[in-house]
C-alpha cells in the first residue's frame, strides 16, 4: 500500500464540507432506521433530501444510508435507496462497503440484493478484510455461496503491504473456516477452487514468508477433525509439504494417521483422474461446469466429492 493509496483513503472518508447538518439528513436516517421504506421513497423524490443519499453520518461508525439499511437487514429500504441511485459500493469511515456490513450481520436477502445491484463481492481494496473472509469465519454457508457465485475469489488473502507479509498474510477463507470448524464452508471453498496447500496462489507472497504453513499443518496443529484432513488430501494437497515430524506428535490423531497413510500409499487411479479433470476445468475457468459434462450422474457426483 503506497502513500498515494493512504491519501486516497483519507480523502474518500472526509465529510463533504458543503453538506449542512440539516434536519433532512436526520429525517432520512430515521426513516431508513425504522424501515419506513414508503417515507424513504417519498423523501428521496425531493432534491433537498436526495443530496444526502450518499453522505456519511450517524453514531458509532458513520456511514451512508445504504450501509444503515444493510446493517439492519432492511431489505425494502435498501431496495428504495438503490432505485434512487445510492452508490452500491460506498464506504464508511472504516472503508467497509454496505455488502461487507450485510455479510457481517448475516442478512442474506440484503447480500443478494446488493450483489444483484453490482456490488463488488470482494469488498473494498482499502479494507484489510473482505466479505468472503467474514462469511468463512462466521460459517454462513448461504452467504458464502452467494459471494462465490458472484465471482468472489476463493483464494482471497489479506491486503497488506509487501513488507508486512507474514503467516497471517495467507490466512484466507479456507484457513478461517478450518480453525473455526466450519466443515461445509471448508468443502465449498475447495469446490470453488481454493488452493488446498496455502489457500494462496501468489507465489511471490508465499516466498516472502519465512516459514509458510500449509493448510494440512494448520489443521493438524489446531486439532481439526479428520474430515478436514481427508478433504484436503482428496482435493490434491501436497502431503509432503507440511513441516511435521509425525513421530514427534502425541497423541496420534486420526487426521495424522490419514496423512501418514497418504504419504505411504499413492492415490488411486480414480482419485488422480478426478484431480486431473477438476484441474483442467479450473485452468479453463470453468470449475463450475461439471454438470455440463456428458458423463453418467454417478461420475458427476464423484467429481463433486459427493
TrEMBL record:
Domain SOCS box span(s) in chain numbering: 259-306
One GO process term, biological-process aspect: positive regulation of protein catabolic process
ANK repeat residue numbers: 64-93, 94-119, 127-159
Annotated keywords: ANK repeat, Repeat, Ubl conjugation pathway
Pathway: Protein modification; protein ubiquitination
Repeat recorded as keyword: yes
Pfam families: Ank, Ank_2, SOCS_box
InterPro entries: Ankyrin-SOCS_box_domain (IPR051573), Ankyrin_rpt (IPR002110), Ankyrin_rpt-contain_sf (IPR036770), SOCS_box (IPR001496)
Oligomeric and partner information: Interacts with CUL5 and RNF7.
Function field: Probable substrate-recognition component of a SCF-like ECS (Elongin-Cullin-SOCS-box protein) E3 ubiquitin-protein ligase complex which mediates the ubiquitination and subsequent proteasomal degradation of target proteins.
Family named by the database record: Belongs to the ankyrin SOCS box (ASB) family.
Protein known as: Ankyrin repeat and SOCS box protein 12
Amino acid at each position: 500500500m503506497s502513500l498515494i493509496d493512504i491519501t486516497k483513503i483519507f480523502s474518500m472518508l472526509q465529510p463533504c464540507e458543503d453538506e449542512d447538518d440539516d434536519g433532512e439528513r436526520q429525517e432520512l436516517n430515521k426513516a431508513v432506521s425504522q424501515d419506513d421504506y414508503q417515507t424513504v421513497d417519498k423523501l428521496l423524490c425531493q432534491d433537498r433530501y436526495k443530496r444526502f443519499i450518499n453522505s456519511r453520518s450517524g453514531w458509532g461508525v458513520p456511514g451512508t444510508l445504504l450501509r444503515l439499511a444493510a446493517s439492519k437487514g432492511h431489505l425494502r429500504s435498501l431496495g428504495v435507496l438503490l432505485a434512487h441511485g445510492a452508490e452500491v459500493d460506498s464506504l464508511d469511515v472504516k472503508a467497509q462497503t454496505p455488502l461487507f456490513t450485510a455479510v457481517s450481520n448475516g442478512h442474506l436477502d440484503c447480500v443478494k440484493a446488493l450483489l444483484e445491484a453490482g456490488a463488488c463481492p470482494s469488498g473494498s481494496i482499502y479494507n484489510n478484510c473482505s466479505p468472503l473472509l467474514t462469511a468463512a469465519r462466521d460459517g454462513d454457508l448461504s452467504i458464502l455461496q452467494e459471494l462465490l457465485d458472484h465471482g468472489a475469489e476463493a483464494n482471497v488473502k489479506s491486503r497488506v503491504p509487501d513488507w508486512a507479509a507474514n503467516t497471517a498474510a495467507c490466512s484466507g477463507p479456507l484457513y478461517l473456516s478450518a480453525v473455526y470448524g466450519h466443515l461445509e464452508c471448508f468443502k465449498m471453498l475447495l469446490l470453488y477452487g481454493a488452493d488446498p496447500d496455502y489457500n494462496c496462489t501468489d507465489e511471490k507472497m508465499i516466498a516472502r514468508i519465512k516459514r509458510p504453513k500449509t493448510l494440512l499443518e494448520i489443521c493438524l496443529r489446531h486439532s481439526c477433525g479428520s474430515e478436514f484432513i481427508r478433504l484436503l488430501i482428496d482435493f490434491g494437497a501436497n502431503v509432503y509439504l507440511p513441516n511435521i515430524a509425525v513421530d514427534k506428535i502425541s497423541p496420534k490423531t486420526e487426521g495424522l494417521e490419514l496423512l501418514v497413510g497418504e504419504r505411504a500409499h499413492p492415490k488411486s487411479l480414480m482419485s488422480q483422474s478426478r484431480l486431473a479433470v477438476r484441474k483442467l476445468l479450473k485452468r479453463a475457468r470453468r470449475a463450475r461446469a461439471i454438470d455440463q459434462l456428458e458423463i453418467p450422474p454417478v461420475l458427476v457426483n464423484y467429481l463433486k466429492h459427493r
